[in-house]
């Protein structure tokens, strides 16, 4: 990778601001330290004025309700996430620990995503509604949360046939997996544990505590297909029974 070498800054020192007495009393002994340039004042004024950097808007002054032109490029996100995975990998001793740490990082993002979504919902609606049933909350994550984070909704949402407390959100092409190359000896690793942390944070924030994990479920057509497994706590199912 080539890096641009910054040019040294040049400045023109003007003597127009020196006292007249100092310019008149210059002698041969100190002439080497004092100069008089007739054309320097106008030139220096132009250079100093043009060298001022343009003032950039402060990110904290942006309106949170305006989503236009606030997206991050996919290449920048992929580079940042790959660096996060590589750094985290150096701090762990196994795959399970690596997935746990990625889950923790995603959980921190999920809390902020939920806070921002609720703020925008309350600002745009005169009568904001809070979902208290499980299925609408899962559809909210499947569509709005996925679109807010990855720019597209998830591909499917399914309920486990064997276990009543398990639901699955399926993404056939996870954006965070597109530029991640997993070694063969770590084939069980799912970097989508980061996404699982986001989902877990949203569920906890909405009052539906659950344990969320990510699993690689590749197919011939979708080699990076990932399943986000949601295992709800018992209290959630008991509340669902009462709301029927």
TrEMBL record:
Residues 15-38 are annotated as: Disordered. It comes from the Eukaryota. Keywords: Endoplasmic reticulum, ER-Golgi transport, Golgi apparatus, Transport. InterPro entries: NO_sig/Golgi_transp_ligand-bd, TRAPP-I_su5, TRAPP_component. SUPFAM superfamilies: Ligand-binding domain in the NO signalling and Golgi transport. The keyword Endoplasmic reticulum applies. Its main location: endoplasmic reticulum. Residues 15-35 have a biased composition (Polar residues). Gene3D superfamilies: Trafficking protein particle complex subunit 3. It is found in: Endoplasmic reticulum; Golgi apparatus, cis-Golgi network. PANTHER family: 41-2 PROTEIN ANTIGEN-RELATED, TRAFFICKING PROTEIN PARTICLE COMPLEX SUBUNIT 5. Belongs to the TRAPP small subunits family. BET3 subfamily. Part of the multisubunit TRAPP (transport protein particle) complex. This is Trafficking protein particle complex subunit. It comes from Hohenbuehelia grisea.
């Amino acid at each position: 990778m080539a890096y641009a070498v910054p040019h040294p800054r040049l400045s023109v020192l003007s003597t127009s601001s020196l006292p007249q007495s100092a310019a008149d009393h210059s002698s041969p002994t100190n002439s080497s330290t004092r100069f008089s340039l007739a054309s320097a004042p106008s030139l220096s004024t132009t250079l100093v004025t043009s060298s001022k950097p343009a003032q950039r808007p402060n990110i904290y002054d942006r309106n949170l309700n305006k989503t236009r032109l606030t997206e991050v490029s996919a290449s920048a996100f992929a580079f940042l996430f790959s660096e996060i995975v590589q750094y985290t990998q150096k701090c762990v001793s196994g795959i399970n620990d690596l997935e746990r740490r990625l889950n923790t990082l995603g959980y921190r993002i999920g809390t902020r995503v939920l806070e921002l979504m609720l703020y925008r919902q309350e600002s745009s609606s005169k009568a904001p509604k809070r979902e208290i049933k499980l299925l609408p909350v899962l559809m909210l994550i499947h569509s709005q949360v996925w679109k807010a984070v990855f720019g597209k909704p998830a591909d499917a949402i399914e309920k486990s046939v064997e276990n009543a407390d398990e639901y699955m959100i399926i993404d056939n092409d996870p954006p965070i997996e597109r530029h991640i190359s997993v070694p063969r000896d770590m084939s069980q690793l799912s970097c989508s544990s980061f996404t699982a942390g986001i989902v877990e944070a949203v569920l906890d924030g909405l009052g539906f505590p659950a344990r969320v994990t990510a699993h690689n479920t590749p197919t011939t057509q979708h080699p990076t297909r990932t399943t986000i497994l949601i295992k709800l706590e018992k209290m959630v199912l008991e509340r669902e029974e009462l709301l029927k």
